[in-house]
Amino acid sequence: MRTGVIIAGGYSTRFGEEDKAVASLAGTPLIRRVADRMTGAVDRLVVNCRPEQTAELRTALDGYDHPITIAEDTDCDEGPMSGIMTGLRAAETEYAFVAACDMPFLEPALIERLFERAGGHDAAVPRVGDGWFQPTYAVYRASAMADACEVALAEGSHKIIDPLFTLDYVVLGEDEVSEYASLDTFENINTPEELARAAEQLR
Ligand SMILES: Nc1nc2c(ncn2[C@@H]2O[C@H](COP(=O)(O)OP(=O)(O)OP(=O)(O)O)[C@@H](O)[C@H]2O)c(=O)[nH]1
Ligand SMILES: [Mg+2]
């Protein structure tokens, strides 16, 4: 059994007034597009958000066969690492794929590969280009990563990559990633302009 965790507790400040998680990407709420891209590779979903987002996100995610657990932040605005921790704590499977709510071009084949490569380790994470890790497009052993995030947060770190470095992790380099996905798969949406461009790509 595999869980897909979507992190959505951010404030979308670059996006503007609207919560980007529910902004319309070619007619579909962004988070629903992300869930659509995940459901082929996982059995259940966990969505991390702030309590005030829950109703709207549930509506945006209505109608899936996959069970969906909402994991609300108790400490809000603590950054993505805190969201990953909260989401992974709610996962009931050994391994979970984690993605941000603003990555509409997730590739199920690459998600599958990340699960395969994580087996027997604590994490599998892509690294493409100039050494950029993609910790919000990675598979984790849920309890190990949640514990590592808790330690990092307690130490005052908010750098999302810090907990990974304390784990037994496998890196998927650009060559391996490219066998499964185009590098656009890591694109994330921060502004209305980027959302409009993503809609163009989907036409
Ligand atoms: N739980 C939680 N998730 C967060 C937090 N900050 C960001 N995220 C999530 O982490 C992912 C990447 O973050 P950003 O692209 O910076 O999103 P954001 O913080 O909402 O947007 P900006 O305010 O424009 O930076 C998104 O899925 C966010 O929802 C936070 O403080 N708590
Ligand atoms: Mg942010």
TrEMBL record:
Domain MobA-like NTP transferase: 4-161
Compartmental location: Cytoplasm
CDD domains (UniProt xref): MobA
Listed InterPro entries: MobA-like_NTP_Trfase, Molybde_CF_guanTrfase, Nucleotide-diphossugar_trans
Main location: cytoplasm
A biological process from GO: Mo-molybdopterin cofactor biosynthetic process
Keyword annotations of the record: Cytoplasm, GTP-binding, Magnesium, Metal-binding, Molybdenum cofactor biosynthesis, Nucleotide-binding, Nucleotidyltransferase, Transferase
Cofactors that this protein relies on: Mg(2+)
GO CC term (a single one): cytoplasm
MF term (GO), any: metal ion binding
Reactions catalysed, as given in the entry: Mo-molybdopterin + GTP + H(+) = Mo-molybdopterin guanine dinucleotide + diphosphate
EC number: 2.7.7.77
Residues the record lists as binding GTP: 7-9, 20, 48, 102
tRNA processing among keywords: no
Recorded domain comment: The N-terminal domain determines nucleotide recognition and specific binding, while the C-terminal domain determines the specific binding to the target protein.
General function of this protein: Transfers a GMP moiety from GTP to Mo-molybdopterin (Mo-MPT) cofactor (Moco or molybdenum cofactor) to form Mo-molybdopterin guanine dinucleotide (Mo-MGD) cofactor.
Protein name: Probable molybdenum cofactor guanylyltransferase
